[in-house]
Amino acid sequence: MTVPGASRIPYGGDYNPEQWPEEVWDEDHRLFTRAGIDTLTVGVFSWSLTQPAEGTYDFTVLDRVLDRAAAEGRRICLATGTAALPPWLAKKYPEVNRTDFEGRRHRYGQRHNFCPGSPAYRRLSSAMAARLAERYGRHPALLAWHINNEYGGTCYCHRCADAFRDWLRDKYATLDALNDAWCATFWSHRYTDWAEIEPPNALTEHWRGPDHTAFQGTTLDWFRFTTDALLGCFLAEKEAIRAHDPDTPVTTNFMGMFRPLDYHRWAPHLDFASWDSYPPLDAPPTWPALAHDLMRGLKDGAPFWLMEQTPSTTACRDVNPLRRPGELRLATFQAIAHGADAALYFQMRASRGACEKYHGAVIGHAGRDDTRVLREVTELGRELDILGNAALGARTPARTALLFDWDSWWALEISDGPSRLVRYQDTVHAYYRAAREAGADVDVIPQTADLTPYDVVLAPALHMIKGDLATRLEAVAARGGTVLTTFLSGRVDEHDRAFLTDVPGPLAPLMGIRVDEWDSRPEDVVQPIDMGEFSCEARLVFEIVLPRGAQSVGTYGTDFYAGTPAVTRNSHGKGEAWYVATALDQPGIDHVVRRVLAHHDLLGPYAGQPGLETATRVAPDGTRLVFLLNHTPEAAHLTAHTTATDLLTGKRVERGEPLTLDPLDTAILRVQ
Ligand code: GLA
Ligand code: ZN
Questions:
Q1: Are 254 and 274 in contact (CB under 8 A)?
Q2: I need a labelling partner for 429 at 20 to 30 A (CA). Which of 24, 61, 292, 328 fits?
């Protein structure tokens, strides 16, 4: 979401001043002003304060927080605070406590602790949202609504089991259809009454945890139902807000590549997408980049908000390293480069106690104004001022798409066979990384998205093929584009039933191949892959491919299928389709993806520069911004590919002249 008329992106973060004495607030605001903080997310965990008992609402503290913010000229992202139950509520309505995967009804504790099917939760959370909207819907400081917080988890109580049965009845209408979808004749599961259906968990279809299920169709439907159940909670609150405030945009903070919830199902109901970025510790920069692009893809490329990131360190990991000097700045500009139109932190001031007291914050417990973190945050605030509104509302002009599909993720990872070692995110990331490091802007989109804007469509590990996707991919190739897919794609329909045709199912005609068998091997078994002038290694799964029109581009080097194709290319209409039948190593994927991109002239100008990321945004007035992000600890020595002005330094850059980026530095080039 782009704030209309804003002079720069919202900058700030989660602020919980109800946790410390009011005298401290003065100091908070003094430092916010110094650091250029203009936006505060408040109320995220304030339910027990704003509603101390069922019939009692008390907004005195929240009033003061909002009024103070308004008086200081800051804007508010107001949370409904329904992600953590107050103790009285759980005591009075024990039904709100979740029942876990093992069937244990939990007692009061932690957060994200509500049963989504609990009528008391629905009623009281919606009532809270309504009260807040009634009270603050016209507040001058209100910028956006933040419903709940990081929705997640699931509940197996009898109410949720009933809700699952209702959901199934809506979906399938008849038990015959359900039995058919779930292949229920396998292991004698034909249901004769909806009441016989059990939620899949440790007491029913699962063993060895959530990924081992006897009936994938059942578990997939449970995952979809879980998304819809939590979405139902969100929608109830949104509706309550809308009754009092018809306009202020509504969001909830997502978690990027978060397996349990299908954010594509959810996205149409958000006014804008927002997410919390806490990349794994040793993740390469393309990991958060992929998540940014996935989040941007939720609303058809519209700018999203970076709702949270840590200014320095997390607390929840066993070991919580600091962000090194410069890393926060780089991560923030990376988010903006990928379409963020807000940069917010968790958190503005450190909690005094409980499990996040050592989580990084813009202001620490001592409230000092001379810390490294505050200095970096302040300096970044100053640079965001300099950037001003140049990137606001700007879109990404990608000609490469990557299909990301929660159903395929689930289906692949709950499958018995061929290999538990193939991880969806790793496979998708490897292809994304190859394209990004080659300098291509990439839209990460759902199966249902319009494919007509793209020259290249990457569809790694697209296990499940739904609707008319195969036809639409054929159309991409027919008009001259390239489609690439990989091993373990085109295997199952929307119910996880194998296609009763050759692998890769509906993709087979486009790929011009037939996969006859697949050999799944431990991680230490390596296949050398020969691609003529280039060779690499492959692991995990080796599909045995019989070309049916496609040409072999690379072959396996050993075993009884030595010499048979591991990578193929098929002509289709004016374009082509590539099939990668095994888990190539990263150099192998880079090689294939670069060949595909080069064919469409999509290699970036700095594709040869390791660790140098480029990303393009085009502003509403047509101005083209090229972000150059140096992710390495060494200076990057480039030759400018265009004449431009660096918006951060104001310096003019001439095409063909040397351009140097310091370690971890960013340049934002306004192309002339
Ligand atoms: C999440 C939550 C926050 C906080 C941070 C800590 O993103 O939304 O409330 O717990 O993690 O990293
Ligand atoms: Zn429940």
A1: yes
A2: 328
